[in-house]
Write a structure and sequence with these properties.
heterodimer; A: mainly beta; six-stranded mixed β-sheet; five-stranded antiparallel β-sheet; 11 strands; B: mainly beta; seven-stranded mixed β-sheet; four-stranded antiparallel β-sheet; 57% strand; globular
Chain lengths: 111, 114
């Protein structure tokens, strides 16, 4: 099925560093969602974006809905060990309401 | 408010058997979606139910089916299990608001087919 281009695929960083990841699509999206998944658990919603240009923060996390409506990015500032996990982007294109998913960015944080 | 619950959390079956997984959405959410997650494949959409009707369907064989009850609880069934059906099966419930729609996930059911 259709998937978003999410990058990078994996990251290994030092505690305290900032992290940036993004998702791109060839289609226009109406909604962008960012999730984090811990091992053996379901994805947990971090940030939801509904308008082009929207910039939303959730603690140390900031996400933006790209102006072209074809991309979104997620930044994590001052990373800590509990940020470890897989981060997924997801978007809704058109009126079919189906979520399209990226393949995830695996984040490892070295204390 | 309680989150999405899924039962069972873990399941071991053998090839050829069938399995039924259950999902209880967040109270007030009427839409339930099911996903299959395998390493390297991300989340693959199975189907979505709203008010007891299948509203969207992914590209899975007919062995995968689902239903939704009047209380919004949903079940999915996989018949004639194959080794490749081993995966984490996730259920998500959602609520459509004037701003948009967001899905909230349960912890998943990990199915192992031997």
């Amino acid at each position: 099925g259709q998937q978003l281009n999410q990058s990078p695929q994996s990251m290994f960083i030092q505690e305290g560093e900032d992290v940036s990841m993004n998702c791109t699509s060839s289609s226009i999206f109406n909604t962008w969602l960012w999730y984090k998944q811990d091992p053996g658990e379901g994805p947990v919603l971090l940030i939801a974006l509904y308008k082009a240009g929207e910039l939303t923060s959730n603690g140390r996390l900031t996400a933006q809905f790209g102006i072209t409506r074809k991309d979104s990015f997620l930044n994590i500032s001052a990373s800590i060990p509990s940020d470890v996990g897989i981060y997924f982007c997801a978007g809704v294109a058109g009126n079919n309401r189906k979520l399209i998913w990226g393949l995830g960015t695996s984040l490892a944080v070295n204390p | 408010k309680a989150g999405v619950t899924q039962t069972p959390r873990y399941l071991i079956k053998t090839r050829g058997q069938q399995v039924t997984l259950s999902c209880s959405p967040i109270s007030g959410h009427r839409s339930v979606s099911w996903y299959q997650q395998t390493p390297g494949q991300g989340l693959q959409f199975l189907f979505e139910y709203f008010s007891e009707t299948q509203r969207n369907k992914g590209n899975f064989p007919g062995r995968f089916s689902g239903r939704q009850f009047s209380n919004s609880r949903s079940e999915m069934n996989v018949s004639t299990l194959e080794l490749g059906d081993s995966a984490l099966y996730l259920c998500a419930s959602s609520l459509l608001t004037v701003v948009g729609e967001t899905q909230y996930f349960g912890p998943g059911t990990r199915l192992l087919v031997l």
